[in-house]
């Protein structure tokens, strides 16, 4: 048997972004021993990239705000496909999660009376986003990191060891969730990136908090970590993914220079007064306000400009429509030949605010464009275009406990969990999602694990560990491939990755067609068979080629889920736009598309097949609780809900 | 081999198991002490040259004990003048506090304060640690010393007295201000006149004040030490002004160093008769 | 526009290594990290390099380019002449693991030694009131992305391995300053003396304010002027001010029964 380090903890959290750290803090606060495993260094998680803020209806800037309004905005943004219970919990608990951060040392921007300042953002009726300039994600991750250090200091005082009850295993990748023969979670299998050594962490409860899938796409704001690990781990462990067809393309990513293509330009640029113009100089967003939003958005530039100063007597500028609308609009302008030289549109603050105000309100944007593109945003417009930003779909979870449906002991929170955001996420709802459901996942994982404190803990089967190790080592013996499934020369994992990104961007990207997605599924199947021959040279110590070869499995699985679900859903809604079915269809609102692994491929060393590894099921969405429905006008509901639902 | 980890290369790289600093055994084996290819030595070299020039000039002038007063102008090196052997300066700061036993140049009595202020100044510390002590000569360029304890021990722990020199420097700047005001007299003490020397003294005292007030200790005392700026709006505003000046502390340090030497030189030239002060009115 | 750029990249591990020559295609608008990635994808797939956000926000891709500590993702190739050889090495103040990856655990150890924020016991969540002018100073320090370039360039530890146990480095002295300036930090009430700790536990006295930390900071934080020197002044208040010293003596005597 392969030599494998073994450790035993109560709760394992996979991922050290906002959701993972918040879950770990909660599990430790419940008195359990908690291990966090992350691919990067502690404190580098992709959460640092979040810019705009944390949505929470504290009502500090506009006292009219409350959780009901936030709930409404969230449901509207998600086109009513959200898991309503998650949206409700999220809206109710977000303020407490933000205030709690202050007690851990977070330093938000302030209102004149000394409270946490809140800013406007697309889709939010009131100024709602607690923020720190445009680096809110950094503040969030640092605060949680420092909270973990504080807890470790307490543990050191009590037990003489910083890591007695809360330990971060940094630069480690988890490749398998292990189960016991009864189907209960028993731990995780992974490797240390630094040394290449394998390890098993045994634990009755595993929280997935691995973030998203953006690295399957060519133009993305996501970092290399976003290879859909948690989505794939959950699938392979027998859990299901819901809503994978909904991928959010952020409307404003950098389009030039090529090396930074996709990097985010925060929505606060628009929230603070930035406007979108095409190459004719026209503020084209006025042409793209959809009917469902007609009453809420300004019809003239004068009205829109008045809103920044006097929001009570003006309607919002259309630049602040939900992200999917703006992304589609930009896409359409560029396709119509009214784009910029580098294939984007202009986003301009230079003519809208004094240079000093820009530097103060948008310091990191100013810095980012200055350093990376040599553009001074106080003097000239930015060039922006859509970039893959977020996946609304994810692990199907119980809304209250964040427990993955169908796999006892598995939990998921943050971007890797599905349902909360429906078909489209509002800006700012991501960071609050991390905190609200990170805490819930940590809490319920701890409660679940505590039940095993006295009894027999689930133990991973030795055979599964063997298989996981063999799977992880395969890239080193890739030459010639496994004769049973795929024959040919070793493949370069970097080249495979680029092809995968090309397929996903071209064929399952922002605008989708049935024929293209069928083509995508075909090409993915070819890539899958070649990926089994992804080979690497060198040894296991910090070998990025090897790491990528292993991540390919996850990206391919997730890519297939996205393509299959997108092909199935014959309507356009939120982060899913069908050229061949351009309208939203109320009947589809009652349908969730759920992906699971095909039965015959449930084992770790699956035989490949052109059929694909993923099976799709339709599931009816649970009816929204009447008191929550009553928060909306009947007219509005009629746009989303079928007539029989409205009865 | 793909990794390039070749034991022979390591021997050639001089991987010294007892290596110091960047040549410590655990660190990346790179024989060069640094890999900077820009002219990193230029800045410390210019600093050394500038400071040495000033030290040479001021030593000569401070020990001279002559040609420091040409009514109505007094050299900033000799004000206040605290010994009996000072020249008489009508209405000026020639206070015979020390008495008659002092026979050396009277400049030595007072220069110690501005000198101490500059010697313990956070900017000059950086400048001479880098320039004279090569600790470090430039960023990522190794320093030559075997051990290093910085300002944690005697004598360098004494740098912490900077703020007391700041208090003294404020007094000296006050005296120099009065000296500049006296420049609005003529040779006979009549008010309402002005010459080129008046302008020189005014410019000097303005720069001295700007340098003194831009001091980090001043910034701390004025408001930096507070925890709640919002409860002290006046001090917060003052802190803001001092902070703005403080951002130019290096520039002001050099400008005032040059101006004080120029002012002294001007008085010297007039006093020694080499130059006649042009009078405006 | 594209050209073949000449690179020297340090390859090796703790056992040894050296600079290896490469030619890498470089396109208009690219940064050093792009070139390193192309090297990885086309010539040496096992080249170890840390990176993450590629936008100067996470502080992962710290290295030394032509001898200067830099983020590879924020070093544009256009600052080099096409014929110039670009030398990329790992950070030289930390133990090397492999190629461009170093062991930065020193920094995590130091982070744990700084006493955490102490919430004011009388205020509950949601009751914190601070004005923007109270938090502006702290927010500058909290821009820190923990790239550890300041720690790497600081000669106190870069040139003197033996100082590592006694010296926390600019990043964590700045953290002490941040907490000491936090308007609501209740450390005093909890018996934590941050100023004394800065001097005794974190080695503030080792800093000789030569400002290399400020020079290399990719976030342009004025570490020396705004954090370290103010902290030194606060330590003077606490430890080197005779009036304060006398006052505390008298108060202590008065407090005796």
From TrEMBL, chain C:
PROSITE patterns reported in the protein's UniProt record: 2FE2S_FER_1, 2FE2S_FER_2
Pathway info: Carbohydrate metabolism; tricarboxylic acid cycle
Any single biological process term in GO: tricarboxylic acid cycle
Coiled coil: none
CC annotations in GO: plasma membrane
Cofactor (UniProt): [3Fe-4S] cluster; [4Fe-4S] cluster; [2Fe-2S] cluster
2Fe-2S ferredoxin-type domain residues: 5-92
Key words, A-Z: 2Fe-2S, 4Fe-4S, Iron, Iron-sulfur, Metal-binding, Oxidoreductase
Any one GO molecular-function label of the UniProt entry: 2 iron, 2 sulfur cluster binding
Domain of life of the native organism: Bacteria
InterPro entries named among the record's database cross-references: 2Fe-2S_ferredoxin-like_sf (IPR036010), 2Fe-2S_ferredoxin-type (IPR001041), 2Fe2S_fd_BS (IPR006058), 4Fe4S_Fe-S-bd (IPR017896), Beta-grasp_dom_sf (IPR012675), Helical_ferredxn (IPR009051), SDH/FRD_Iron-Sulfur (IPR050573), Succ_DH/fum_Rdtase_Fe-S (IPR004489)
Similarity-based family: Belongs to the succinate dehydrogenase/fumarate reductase iron-sulfur protein family.
Protein name: Fumarate reductase iron-sulfur subunit
């Amino acid at each position: 048997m392969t030599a494998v380090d073994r450790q035993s903890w109560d709760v394992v959290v996979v991922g050290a972004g906002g959701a993972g750290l918040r879950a770990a803090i909660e599990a430790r606060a419940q008195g359990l021993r908690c291990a966090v495993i992350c691919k990067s260094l502690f404190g580098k998680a992709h959460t640092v990239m979040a810019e705009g803020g944390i949505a929470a209806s504290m009502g500090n800037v506009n006292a009219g705000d409350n959780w009901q309004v936030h709930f409404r905005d969230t449901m509207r943004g998600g086109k009513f496909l959200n898991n309503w219970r998650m949206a409700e919990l999220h809206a109710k608990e977000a303020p407490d999660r933000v205030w709690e951060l202050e007690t851990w040392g977070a330093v938000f921007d302030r209102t004149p009376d000394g409270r946490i300042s809140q800013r406007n953002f697309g889709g939010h009726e009131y100024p709602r986003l607690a923020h720190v300039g445009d680096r809110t994600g950094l503040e969030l991750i640092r605060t949680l990191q420092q909270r973990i250090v504080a807890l470790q200091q307490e543990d050191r005082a009590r037990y003489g060891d910083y890591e007695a009850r809360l330990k971060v295993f940094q630069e480690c990748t988890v490749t398998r969730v292990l189960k016991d023969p009864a189907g209960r979670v028993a731990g995780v299998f992974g490797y240390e990136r630094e040394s290449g050594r394998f390890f098993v962490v045994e634990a009755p409860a595993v929280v997935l908090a691995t973030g998203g899938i953006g690295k399957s796409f060519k133009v993305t704001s996501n970092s290399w970590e976003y290879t859909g690990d948690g989505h794939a781990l959950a699938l392979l462990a027998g859990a299901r993914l819901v809503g994978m067809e909904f991928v959010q393309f952020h409307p404003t990513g950098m389009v030039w220079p090529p090396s930074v293509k996709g990097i985010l330009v925060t929505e606060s640029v628009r929230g603070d007064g930035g406007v979108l113009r095409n190459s004719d100089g026209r503020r084209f967003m006025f042409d793209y306000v959809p009917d469902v939003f007609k009453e809420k958005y300004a019809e003239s530039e004068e009205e829109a400009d008045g809103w920044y100063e006097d929001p009570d007597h003006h309607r919002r500028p259309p630049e602040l429509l939900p992200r999917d609308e703006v992304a589609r609009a930009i896409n359409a302008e560029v396709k119509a030949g009214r784009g910029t030289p580098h294939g984007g549109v202009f986003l301009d603050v230079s003519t809208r605010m004094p240079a000093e105000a820009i530097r103060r309100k948008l310091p990191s944007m100013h810095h980012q464009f200055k350093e990376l593109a040599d553009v001074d945003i106080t003097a000239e417009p930015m060039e922006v275009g859509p970039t893959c930003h977020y996946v609304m779909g994810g692990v199907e979870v119980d809304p209250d406990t964040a427990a993955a449906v169908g796999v006892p002991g598995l939990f998921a929170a943050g971007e890797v969990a599905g349902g909360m955001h429906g078909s489209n996420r509002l800006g700012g709802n991501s960071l609050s999602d991390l905190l609200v459901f990170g805490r819930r996942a940590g809490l319920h994982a701890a409660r679940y694990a505590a039940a095993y404190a006295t009894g027999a803990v689930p133990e991973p089967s030795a055979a599964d560990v063997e298989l996981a190790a063999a799977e992880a080592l395969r890239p080193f013996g890739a030459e010639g491939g496994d004769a049973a499934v795929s024959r040919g020369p070793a493949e370069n994992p970097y080249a495979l990755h680029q092809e995968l990104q090309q397929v996903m961007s071209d064929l399952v990207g922002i605008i989708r067609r049935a024929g293209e997605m069928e083509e995508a599924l075909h090409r993915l199947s070819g890539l899958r068979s070649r990926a089994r021959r992804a080979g690497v040279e060198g040894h296991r110590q910090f070998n990025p080629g090897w790491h990528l070869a292993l991540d390919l499995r996850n990206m391919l699985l997730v890519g297939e889920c996205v393509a299959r679900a997108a092909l199935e859903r014959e309507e356009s809604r939120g982060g899913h736009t069908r050229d061949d079915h351009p309208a939203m269809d109320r009947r589809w609102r009652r349908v969730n598309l759920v992906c699971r692994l095909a039965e015959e491929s449930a084992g770790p060393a699956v035989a490949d097949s052109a059929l694909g590894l993923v099976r799709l099921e339709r599931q009816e969405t649970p009816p929204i609780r009447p008191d929550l429905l009553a928060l909306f006008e009947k007219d509005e509901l009629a746009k989303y809900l079928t007539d029989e639902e409205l009865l | 081999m793909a990794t390039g980890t070749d034991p022979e290369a390591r021997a050639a790289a001089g991987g010294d198991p007892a290596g110091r600093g960047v040549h410590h055994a655990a660190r990346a084996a790179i024989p060069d002490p640094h890999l900077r290819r820009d002219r990193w030595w230029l800045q410390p070299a210019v600093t050394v040259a500038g400071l040495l020039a000033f030290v040479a000039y001021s030593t000569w002038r401070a020990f001279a004990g002559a040609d420091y007063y040409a009514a109505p102008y007094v050299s900033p090196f000799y004000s206040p003048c605290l010994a009996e052997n000072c020249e008489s300066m009508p209405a000026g700061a020639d206070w015979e506090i020390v008495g008659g036993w002092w026979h050396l140049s009277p400049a030595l009595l007072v220069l110690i304060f501005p000198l101490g202020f500059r010697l313990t100044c956070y900017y000059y510390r950086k400048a001479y640690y880098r320039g004279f002590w090569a600790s470090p000569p430039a960023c990522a360029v190794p320093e030559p010393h075997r051990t290093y304890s910085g300002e944690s021990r005697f004598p360098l722990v004494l740098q912490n007295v900077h703020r007391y020199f700041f208090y003294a420097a404020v007094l000296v700047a006050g005296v120099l201000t009065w000296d500049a005001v006296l420049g609005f007299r003529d040779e006979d003490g009549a008010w309402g006149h002005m010459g080129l020397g008046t302008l020189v003294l005014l410019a000097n005292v303005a720069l001295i004040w700007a340098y003194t007030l831009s001091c980090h200790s001043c910034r701390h005392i004025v408001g930096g030490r507070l925890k709640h700026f919002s409860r002290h709006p006046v001090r917060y505003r003052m802190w803001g002004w001092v902070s703005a000046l403080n951002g130019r502390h290096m520039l002001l340090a050099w400008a005032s160093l040059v101006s004080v030497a120029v002012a002294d030189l001007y008085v010297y030239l007039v006093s020694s008769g080499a130059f006649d002060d042009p009078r405006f009115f | 526009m594209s050209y073949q750029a000449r690179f020297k990249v340090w390859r090796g591990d703790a056992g040894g290594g050296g600079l290896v020559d490469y030619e890498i295609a470089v396109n208009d608008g690219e940064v050093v990290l792009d070139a390193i990635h192309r090297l990885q994808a086309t010539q040496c797939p096992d080249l170890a390099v840390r990176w993450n956000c590629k936008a100067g926000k996470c502080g992962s891709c710290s290295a030394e380019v032509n001898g200067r500590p830099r983020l590879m993702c924020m070093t544009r190739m256009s600052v080099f002449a096409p014929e110039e050889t670009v030398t990329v090495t790992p950070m030289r103040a930390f133990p090397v693991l492999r190629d461009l990856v170093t062991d930065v655990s020193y920094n995590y150890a130091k982070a744990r030694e700084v006493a955490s924020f102490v919430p004011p016991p009388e205020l509950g969540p949601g009751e914190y009131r601070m004005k923007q002018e109270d938090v502006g100073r702290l927010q500058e320090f909290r821009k820190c992305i923990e790239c550890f370039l300041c720690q790497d360039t600081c000669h106190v530890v870069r040139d003197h391995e033996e100082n590592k146990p006694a010296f926390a480095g600019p990043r964590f002295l700045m953290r002490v300053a941040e907490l000491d300036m936090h308007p609501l930090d209740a450390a005093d009430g909890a018996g934590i003396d941050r100023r004394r700790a800065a001097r005794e536990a974190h080695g503030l006295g080792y800093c000789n304010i030569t400002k290399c930390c400020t020079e290399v900071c990719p976030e342009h934080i004025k570490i020396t002027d705004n954090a370290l020197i103010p902290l030194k002044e606060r330590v003077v208040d606490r430890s080197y001010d005779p009036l304060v010293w006398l006052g505390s003596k008298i108060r202590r005597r008065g407090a005796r029964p």
